[in-house]
Amino acid sequence: MDEEPERYRVEFASGSAASVENRRSFRDRERNDIEPDLPGWPPGPAFAVRGFFGKVGRHVLTFVTGLLMLPLYFIAEVLGSPGSPDKRGKLEERENEVDDFPVMWAGVGETARTLPWQLDPSRRAWRVVTELELVESEDLVRITTYEDSARGNRFVEWGGGRRVPGSEAVLWELPRKEIAGAEAKRFSMAESDFKIVFRDGSWARLTTTSSGAAGRIVSLLG
């Protein structure tokens, strides 16, 4: 009997620097915006790098939120739960992590442009989940989707949820040989981002919401 493929929740990453926090862009090799050229993609929020006052506002919000969350972190530590704030690693590419935040880098007709729009959390319904599947028996990489009944909203998951019947679908698949490699991206919260590079030189920056999975994905794809 065939083994079940390994599955990891993934989606397009979003910026963590104040200038691009919670934002993402889609670029060609000349750094032009390619969102209007992606066939079948629904409209999404326009990308813009925050100016000085916008960045100050994000820093103030982060500071205030941290103060408000301190009692919860303290209680979690006392109870032995992993409640400390997520850490972010070292900045690696200022041009792609502070001055801009491309999650798709591809010329016309290149592989990264074929990735499904459902990977963008700002375009899909909040209960929809996207997963990366590594199907070793067929040497394929797949992106699948389903609706999760446990998701209370975009940010909170109640636990104990199930896949809504009939909501599962395969969105995208690619022979493993078409992937040139993968690398972890340290400049992300909990270092959960990773980059997939395709044989034609195009790439995508994704993040995983499965705990500790970025390294495992990179190992399997690299």
TrEMBL record:
This is DUF4245 domain-containing protein. Keywords: Membrane, Transmembrane, Transmembrane helix. The keyword Membrane applies. Residues 1-10, 21-34 have a biased composition (Basic and acidic residues). It comes from the Bacteria. Residues 1-39 are annotated as: Disordered. The chain crosses the membrane at residues 60-80.
